């Protein structure tokens, strides 16, 4: 039976003989030119999410960080990797846009509905406190007898909106937005259809569909 590492090596070889050769000039330029990404993408760590493919982006265009639930702790609450990425992207790389990208069938959002499922995952449980307010809002807005799938979608959207609020508490983000140098948006990516719902006003999501 082929090991997982062997499968990964085969993938590298296919990349080297296919994708790399077809785009060798772009990769060589990326290796010799300081990165100038235009967007910081904050996405879920879910293995089904590929933001470069989703946005048809080339190497060097996206500065990316991923975590369970695409969460952004409010500034000062959990200063760590996510906060460092945001600060570096905005203050050093001067990205022009930040996306918080949620997605359908998100395990983190499902876990918010069933907190006891995280009893054996204390670190994850603590991390998901950053989405607790989204869960409460989704519950308050949920009509009686709402289908579980509809509630999950509502919760996913509310979580993206909450993380956008948290994002704006970061000094680097607040300052760049005040100067008109940075914009932000929230996305919900539907895995099964390829449709992406985007909000720029922090309230209304609009679907991006094929032209």
List the helices and strands and how they pair.
Layout: H1 4-22, H2 24-32, E1 39-44, H3 51-54, E2 62-67, H4 81-92, E3 97-103, H5 107-113, H6 122-127, H7 132-141, H8 148-167, H9 171-178, E4 183-189, E5 196-199, E6 206-208
Parallel strand pairs: 1-2, 1-3, 3-4
Antiparallel strand pairs: 4-5, 5-6
Helix pairs in contact: 4-9, 7-8
Task: Summarize, please.
With 211 residues, the chain is of the alpha/beta class.
CATH topology description of the largest domain: Beta-carbonic Anhydrase, Chain A
Strand order of the largest sheet: 2-1-3-4-5-6
Number of strands: 6
Quote the distance from N terminus to C terminus.
44 Å
Number of discrete helical segments: 9
